[in-house]
Each structure stands twice: as C-alpha cells, then as structure tokens.
Design goal:
Blueprint (H helix, E strand, L loop, with lengths): L1 H31 L3 H21 L4 H11 L3 H29 L3
Helix pairs in contact: 1-2, 1-4, 2-4, 3-4
C-alpha cells in the first residue's frame, strides 16, 4: 500500500506542476494582452519535463538510483525508481493532454 501512495503522490505532483504552471501562464497572457489559450498549451508542453523532474525530487537522483540498483544487483530498488519515473512522465503527459483538450488545441 505504501508504494501505491508514493506512486500516486509522484504522479499528482507532476500533474499539478504542469496544470498549475499552465493556468498561471494563461493568467499572465491575459494580463499582458496575449492569447491565453495558446500560452497555456505552449507552457504545458514546456513544463512536461520539469513536472517530471519536480515529482522525482531532482533531475539525476532517480536515474542514479536506477543505475546503482542495476549494477549492485538490487533490482527491487531499480524497479521502484523506474516505476516512479514512468508514473511521473505519465502524470505530466496526462496534464498536458488535459490542457490541450480543455483549450481545444489540436
């Protein structure tokens, strides 16, 4: 059960980073006289990778753990970090897809 809670937290942090950043980009576009829907989609696209990194708690720590787990024979640790990586990417991409769907972008 603990791993499920950790994975849900990881995915939702990535999701929230992309959605929140996109919403504020839309607000900034309104204030500056630009098109808010276009700004939201562009920002969501740019934030996918950063949402993933934010959810993992850094850029290289998860990859380093996977590497050390594989070479040290600790496959459970490597699999757990790989699952976090996949879930973070999934959460960020789902947020991007949601922003695109809500804004009507193609």
């Amino acid at each position: 059960m603990r791993i499920a809670a950790e994975l849900a937290t990881t995915g939702l942090i990535a999701f929230g980073t992309v959605v929140g950043g996109s919403l504020f980009a839309g607000l900034a576009a309104v204030v500056t006289g630009r098109l808010p829907l276009r700004a939201m989609v562009e920002m969501a696209d740019r934030l996918k990778l950063w949402g993933t990194f934010a959810a993992l708690g850094g850029t290289f720590s998860a990859l380093r753990t996977i590497e050390s787990g594989l070479f040290a024979g600790q496959l459970g640790t490597a699999a757990r970090q790989a699952a976090h990586l996949v879930i973070a990417f999934t959460g960020a991409y789902l947020a991007f897809a949601l922003v695109r769907a809500l804004t009507g972008a193609q």
